[in-house]
Amino acid sequence: MDLREELPDDGRAVRNVHLRAFGDHGLVVADLVDTLRSTITPGDGLSLVAVEGGQVVGHVMFTRSLLDAPRRLVDVQVLSPLAVMPEFHKRGIGSALVRRGLEVLAERAVPLVFLEGDPGYYSRFGFVPGGGLGFRKPSLRIPDDAFQVIRFPEHEAWMTGTLVYAEPFWRHDAVGLRDSDA
User: Fold this and answer.
1) What is the pTM of this model?
2) pLDDT at position 42
3) What SS3 class is residue 53?
4) Residue 6 carries which DSSP code?
5) What span, in angstroms and rounded, lies between the C-alpha atoms of 81 and 117?
6) Which H helix or E strand runs over 44?
7) What is the distance between the terminal CA atoms of the chain, rounded to a whole angstrom?
8) Which among 42, 39, 51, 21 has a CA at the least distance from the CA of 78?
9) What DSSP letter does each residue of 113-179 carry, written as one string?
10) Cα–chain-centroid distance for residue 63?
11) pLDDT surpassing 60 at residue 117
């Protein structure tokens, strides 16, 4: 398996990974990725793919958001989404993508990375619940245990506050969980 940054020609394959991995929510996630892609610039954000046998089989994206801290706004990253083709699950592809992404972001002096996800999965990378560390989630629809953060060496004690997702997450209604009865 090869891990590398997403290339311009990978767009269709990356979209297919998300459509397959997220089932009924695949279209929303794939559209979100297509929108977020334009926000990534050299040194700000990251889009990685896993390639096996010449095929893109996994993808992770890290994009810029803001932490509304008492002293000032702080640039942070959000890990979202992460997807692996269903037939390639349980092979360590998702873990490899996350680890590589976190290594790159730590080298770039990013202070914090946030996500919404399963603590049982993401705790292996050093993510912890954000609420007990002085961070507030951007929506009440995010379950408390799903709102997670990893702090890097550039984090300073005053960097607490509310995570403010980048606009595409709101435009695509990809924040938290909606009531199924609505």
Assistant:
1) 0.95
2) 84
3) coil
4) P
5) 10
6) none
7) 42
8) 39
9) EEEES-HHHHGGGT-EESGGGTEE-S-TTS-GGGEEEEE-TT--TT--EEEE--HHHHHTT-SS---
10) 7
11) yes
User: What 3 state SS string does 17-67 have?
Assistant: HHHHHCHHHHHHHHHHHHHHHCCCECCECEEEEEEECCEEEEEEEEEEEEE
46-52 and 112-116: which strand pairing?
unpaired
Give the separation between CA 88 and CA 52, rounded to whole angstroms.
Answer: 10
- Decide: 74 and 66 in contact? Cβ < 8 Å: yes
Helices 26-37 & 11-21, crossing angle to 10 degrees? 150
Q: Which two tokens stand for residue 92?
A: 């360590």
Q: Give 11-38 pLDDT, tens digit per residue.
A: 999 999 999 999 999 999 999 999 999 9
Among 136, 78, 76, 80, CA closest to 112 = 76
- Amino acid 51 reads V
Question: Which helix (H) or strand (E) element contains residue 7?
Answer: none
| Model pLDDT for residues 58-84, shown as the tens digit of each residue | 999 999 999 999 999 999 999 999 999
Q: What percent of the chain has pLDDT over 70?
A: 98
Consecutive H or E run containing 63: strand 55-68
Long-range contacts from 86-90, C-beta under 8 angstroms, 24+ separation? 86/20, 86/21, 88/52, 88/57, 88/58
